[in-house]
Amino acid sequence: MNPIFDDFREAYENGDGYLLSQTLSPIPPSSQPQRVYNFFRSTNFAAAQKDLKQQILPFKLDPDESKGWIEIYHAYWKAVGEVLNAENAQKGNTKAAWSKVYDAWKEVLNALIRGYTNCGFEAWTVPCLYVVGKYLRIFAIKADEGSGNSIGAVTSFQDDFNPEAEKNEKLEDAARQLNRIFQICLADRAEIGESRKWGIYNIINLLFKTYFKLNSISLSKNILKAIQAYRGDMPTLDKFPVGHQVTFKYYIGVIYFLDENYAESEKNLTEAWQLCHKDAIRNKELILTYLIPCHLLTTHTLPTLALLSPYPRLQKLFLPLSRCIKKGDLAGFDAALVAGEDEFVKRRIYLTLERGRDIALRNLLRKVFIAGGFEETKDAATPPVRRTRIPVAEFGAAISIGSKETMDNDEVECLLANMIYKNLMKGYIARERGIVVLSKGGAFPGTGV
Amino acid sequence: MNTSWAVPPPPGTQGQPYGYQSKSQSHIAFKLHKTSRAVPDMSTDPPAYHPVQVRQSFSQPALHYPPMVQQPPQATDQAAEAGEKKKIDWPVPVRNYVQRSFEPGRMDPDVPRAEMEAKLKETISTATEKNVLYTLDWDKLPLPQEMIRHDRRKAAGVAQEAWRQQSAAGKSFVDTSTSKKRKSQELVGDNEDSLPPWRATNPRNGFEDRVTYPAERFDKRQQPIQDENLKGTSKFHKNLEKRQRRFDGGYKSSYKSPSPEPVSGPVIGTCQILEKQYFRLTSAPIPSQVRPESILRQTLDLLKKKWKKEGNYSYICDQFKSMRQDLTVQRIKNAFTVTVYEIHARIALEKGDLGEYNQCQTQLRALYTQNLGGNPVEFKAYRILYFIHTSNRTALNDVLADLTTAEKQEKAIKHALDVRSALALGNYHRFFRLYLETPNMGAYLMDMFVVRERLAAMSNICRAFKPDVPLRFVTEELGFESDSDAAQFICDYNGQALLEEKEGNMRFLSGKAGQIFEVAKSEAFRKVDIKGQI
């Protein structure tokens, strides 16, 4: 009846999980753009189950397994019908249509999970979980974003309304469903060669993605705790498909980043960066979005033009700030930060980039120090020593450049105290005398002076 | 007449005295709210807890009453009642009436206790208001459960479906046509193909697989042979799964109450009493115990007066919580809702109850997005300060994302944003200037983190300034009211030795402070722990 089952047969003959998973995709392969549509049109509501039985029984699978697949394709057939219906739904009423898609797709997932728990599906088929999980998330988002009235009024015995729950009703449900997949992968006790555990990082990545979208990143920690608890029974991360590793490390890096643990963040992001496929420009761009601010704080270094050249978006994001940091242009830095604020906030890097101002300030103060020249030496033989006693007023004048008002001395001292405290500048402030005494051996650590 | 009011507690409840005794004549504080759930009952067979029906779904609250197991009178009640007797001298007939109502033999399993209590309360308060407390023939008066049954029959006559909409007054639900429609759809959706509930509930339904198809047995026997034919299958694996499956789904509780699906939709309250003790809902709200908006408005006025006059926070907070609950269960979202939350948030702020404050601000944030009025600027500014206090970076980022350009220019919000950026950049100088000119009630919030920021600034100063600074400098830079306050602060952290008088001026030996402020600072930043925070 259908090319879908040609692929099914081939996948089963070769144990090709990815090919098998494609038969459950709601998006037809580019080589057969009509495949999903034709599949839906090939039967009808009354005959679907019987027709599918006829398709699948001849493969002579284990009867349990056959039954499982018939249920899955039956659910899939219904879900595709809803997808086709939703794609043609009238504007203004998309919510109801996509909600139906979501619910129908959830049935596909339920049938699939039953396949693993009740019908003895083997581990090589786990890519089906990836595909079904992936589209569950996509459909949930479409349902939540759709326009029109929501059908199910959310009520619980809470004292207050839960605004988030109403906004992300389906996606929150999707997170729960993905968690079920996570559990059936994690709890598989089959020997590792035939274990569903091999699917776990793909599912974790889906979960992370969902949690980020839901703005409940803290839930990711539960997942990490769970795999930590099972680590003895689990192959190490580097044994998993590289694609899973890269995404996983990326998310871990970002989670650390948001926790302000920049050292760990940098470690994970760097690993993700190194493992990332060379042509995966978009992924590399995402990794750099966090790796660059991270690097700025941990090593006080800026991205080179060469690094940024393949990524116009990142250039736009980071170059204006980088220039100002390099020049020690505080006013320019503030302006660039304001200009990019919306974008930075959206990517959750604003609060980190803001701290780049310290580096800009350090560079400015360093310029003052260098401009101060050298102490006069009586003896021409001794190497010249830089002037290390610098009036606070000189720093103050530099800081006020580009700003309309002059900063008062107390505030200048405050900023200098910060530099000293953060070890960006070595020395001390002698307040009575109004000077800063800088260290003779490396006043600005790591900058060569 | 007694000025302090309370209905004698029925047996089975502890008449826990309210934290607050009303002094005003016009308002009646009732204490009939169930506090008995926690009382363990060891003397008799029926359990002392109120069985709460298992929640079946989020979207359809069970609006029918949960099945109740009535409690017999308990020994503890005597003591509680005796305690009450001192305060109010209830006429004996009234006491007997109450006693009779709760006699186990007379209890009606169809009439939940809460409803009975409400009815009882209503009866007694009506009698009191009409001044017939002493003249009424209490012995002949029908018991509350009888009244309720009567009311229900009456209501049933009005509408065929009233069994679904039980209400004491018989007028609880204004059932619009749309919600009727929805109801029927939901009924259909839930009991698909009119399967019996025990078949329909469990979505995984491993049960069904096991029960309905005898052929499966045959399959199972066949399976080992099949295994050989299939590539790469581990027999062990399969058997394991089979064994697991016995526990998976098949035996999960699939009990569902055979009672009909409740009507979905907001409750319409009928309670006419202004004050109500907060009690966390564990089952669907009962209309007779929910106050409609008109009453809540009066409640708010009353509470505002009481707060001004008496300032009893635990009472006020409790009352506001019950108000919020009543608003929520009736889905009232309007300017009045905003006012209630704003006032509660302000009071909680003033009292430093951050848990409660946070709950309110979370609601306010959602309410403001619907443009219902109120003071969004003021509260958005608090929100920023609050997240600074809790060091919640993720939330701060979200706040920034929420603000519009125009809002960022508003005085209070701009102030809060400046506070944030001053702290982010370690600019304590600017931070303490901003602290001294905080608009609205933001200072209550800033007070919560000003100490730790002072410690941070002190750590900074001690590292950077040598050999010393005038004490006055510390006072000014760290926003102290006076030199002695600053000195006290230093002494609080064992810095007495760092204060020295020189040429008639107090000086702070910053260069010799070592790590004392550093240690205190990391300690202070470590613990930001707030009750009720998510």
Automatic annotation (TrEMBL), chain A:
PROSITE patterns: PCI
Gene3D superfamilies in the record: Winged helix-like DNA-binding domain superfamily/Winged helix DNA-binding domain
Signal peptide bounds: none
Classification via Pfam families: PCI
PCI domain mapped to chain residues: 246-443
InterPro entries: Csn12-like, PCI_dom, WH-like_DNA-bd_sf
A GO molecular-function descriptor: RNA binding
Family: Belongs to the CSN12 family.
Protein name (record): Protein CSN12 homolog
Source organism of this protein record: Lachnellula hyalina
Phylogenetic placement of the source organism: Eukaryota, Fungi, Dikarya, Ascomycota, Pezizomycotina
From TrEMBL, chain B:
Chain positions covered by the region annotation Disordered: 1-27, 63-87, 159-207
Domain annotation SAC3/GANP/THP3 conserved: ranges: 277-493
Coiled-coil residues: none
Comp. bias intervals (Polar residues): 163-177
Domain of life of the native organism: Eukaryota
Record's GO cellular component terms: nucleus
Annotated protein name in UniProt: THP3-like protein
Organism: Lachnellula hyalina
